[in-house]
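seq as requested:
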Amino acid sequence: MPSSQPFLSILIPSYNRARFVKSLVTSLAHQIERDDLEGVEIVIADNASNDDTAETVTNLAARWPFVRLYTQPTHFGSAEKNIFTAVGVCRGKYAWTISDDDHVSDSGIKFIINLLKTRAPAFALLNVSLFDTLGNMRHYYYIPQETGRQLSDNDDLTLRDLIETIGFLGLLTSISSAIFEIEPVRAIDLLSIIEKSEIYSHSAVYMQAFGSKKTIFVPQPIVNVYDDEGLALDKISFVSASSGKQRMYSWTIGLARLIEACDLDVGKIWEVTPTNRILLGDLITSYMCDQITLWLDSRLNDQVFTDREVDIVLNALAATSSTRLVLTWNRLRQIGLLLRPLALPADKSNETFFSTMAALPTETYTEFIETLNNYARETIVQLRGALSPDLIGTIEEGELDGYRISRRGTQWIAEHAATATSVSEPLQTGEHYPDRLVAGSRQVLEARILGLVGNSDAKKRTAKRLQKFDKSVMPPAIVAAADWIIAPEYLMRASPEARAARTANGAEGLIDFWIGNVRNNIVPSPLISLPWFRHNNGQLESRPGPPTLEKVVTIAIPSGLPFCPVFDEHWYLATYTDATHALSSGEVETGFEHYMRFGGQRGYDPCAEFDEEFYLASHPDARRACGNGLYRSGAEHYMAEGAMLGYNPSRQFSEAEYLVVNADVGNAVRVGVWANGFLHWLAMGKKEGRAIAHDGRTFARSLG
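struct tokens:
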């Protein structure tokens, strides 16, 4: 049960989205109950909604006492203001802000609490997986994997270091990615920061509160963030318009004011996204060009800069220590000087340059305006030309066998670390330069590297298959997984065609058969359960897209979404440090891959509820089957045979007793609705708080 003094406050800002709040809070509350977590409260910051949010949260709070509602007295125009005015009612040492439509992976709260107690940071930034609103994954790692590993290994990291490495505007502004000590935030003047510019104000708040304090970065995503790609501009522009600001205010004047308040150098901050990398100073300059063009095209007074606003941006840009940007700032200053005759007075009166010039003869007015516009546009074109190399950007993505791998625009480039020299000319995809390789995807690039220099047998096989399937429509993730995901004996018993392929062409024939039949939902291992995936990921499964098995391999496994009753990605990584180290080093891509390659054969438990040692000791036929190579673990045997035979998965859970105590489940098993009691308990009984024994014990308590 949660303690009276919380350690962690989960703060959920929301406005008119009661159904999202109900789903998220229910999911989080089940984690808190199941994992028996103490010291956690959930606070919903209702931004004066006019739907049934208050009633929904009140009902949730009646069921779970650790849920609380805070309703703003008036509606705020941004989530940032809602969040930081609600921080004052949070009672924990730490606050974790979570967007109401995002998803926290199973056991994610437990993982975070253990992390905070072990490493005691002032601020923690979580990497996230990015999905569109249809449930399609856009990027598993928001911050590229190699960058994330380097940051997570830095024990002396401060928030200023983090901002200079990954940016002020990107991941740091994702509501669900930030966890912070509450007291330092309460100690600063929040409203004065928010008044400078509401959008991105949370980055400035974090910087002022934690700039020089201990910060950690969590590279493995435990939050799925759902967003409409391409709508950010419209959303932020709406906030600008509602407050009487220029369309690009949040990226120009407002951003410059926040940067000035944080004493940051825009020539040192690299804004990193999953696909690009750009200097913050160049980004501000680019948006200044957009705003000026919008003004000149629209002739609208509400898009005009004042003298003071022009100076704010120029001063922020001029403060950089980057000598490379001097020419850029000079060109922008030319535009700024050009704008002065057009700019409004500081009081933004209605006497604008255009209204004054309108009194002149029409020909004189038109000629002057056209001359001024042409000069402004020429200057902007020159400025954009100076920006273009950085707008393409280069993201370092790690090394492989002596080659540095990076992404430049849409190209993947491998440069030999010992001989590579900097180049600026365009590279041709598919060409082999003396010290670099160029390809259109990382998989093809790695295949070419491995083909040149060799590697482990597994990587050589994967590289060969990637080349074989390069021209097909089969996702490379499936090809790469084929080396470890297949349980050969299981697959051959399930499919006579698979056995024939193995007989004809050996192990490679079996692998080729499976890759070619993924879209026929030919399951490669008993640990992949398509019904379990559908049961737990109904929204994702119902979306248009590839067949179910392809979604499991390309989305569920990399994201830690449930696809198997007896495997828990986050519990497994939190329990076995060698799995975590293998993931951090790049030896494996997921905890499930580690289990399939190594953990199962080492006797590791795949989840908290399944006891591998007990299962093999209690069931001799399972032990013999594993010893004969029919299965790689007791868990595989259980999913293939043991579940249907009613075998007990652990000493805490008695299949027969559960069915007696829960007579309705016993009846459902007898008529074939459920395969056995344990699978029912995992799917529903655990959430319903059902007893597993005559004395009323629940599984979590019996684990003690």
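Residues 45 and 86 are 6 Å apart (CA to CA).
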